[in-house]
Design goal:
5 helices; elongated; mainly alpha
Length: about 150
């Protein structure tokens, strides 16, 4: 069962962190370069509508598999607790994005209020950047933690 839990965990963080990396490092600069603000905001509202569903699935998989593996460990090592703490911070940031700026972006796009949509998108961009950094850090802690003892 531990092998299945690890597979699920890897799948979950690959979807979440990989999706953030693609969106932030590839889609964002291209969209900014080739689309007008109204088109860009409509694109992002649609992209987030699809991606955020998969992030919720990934978060559920990550926490379910993570807590299962922690339960098997008994007393988890410090690096596992660090991953858990970083994961909780990432979840809180994502939940905030989903409940606040993403909902504002949806309302702005529906109302064709492009300045308000741009402000919401800017906040999302900043928070996704923060979560991307935390996600990469968490992956590094998970990969290197066992080697450090």
């Amino acid at each position: 069962m531990m092998l299945i839990a690890r597979f699920i965990h890897i799948l979950g963080f690959t979807v979440w962190i990989g999706g953030m990396f693609f969106a932030y490092m590839t889609l964002r600069p291209v969209a900014a370069a080739v689309l007008q603000p109204a088109q860009r905001l409509q694109l992002w509202e649609g992209v987030f509508g699809k991606f955020f569903f998969w992030v919720w699935v990934a978060v559920a998989l990550l926490f379910a598999s993570g807590f299962y593996m922690v339960a098997l460990l008994g007393r988890p090592p410090a690096y596992v607790l660090a991953m858990l703490g970083l994961g909780i911070v990432m979840l809180l940031i994502f939940a905030h994005v989903f409940v606040n700026p993403y909902k504002r972006l949806q309302r702005a796009v529906a109302a064709q209020d492009w300045p308000a949509g741009g402000a919401a998108l800017g906040q999302i961009r900043s928070l996704v950047g923060t979560n991307l950094i935390l996600g990469v850090l968490t992956m590094c802690v998970g990969a290197l933690g066992p080697l450090l003892g």
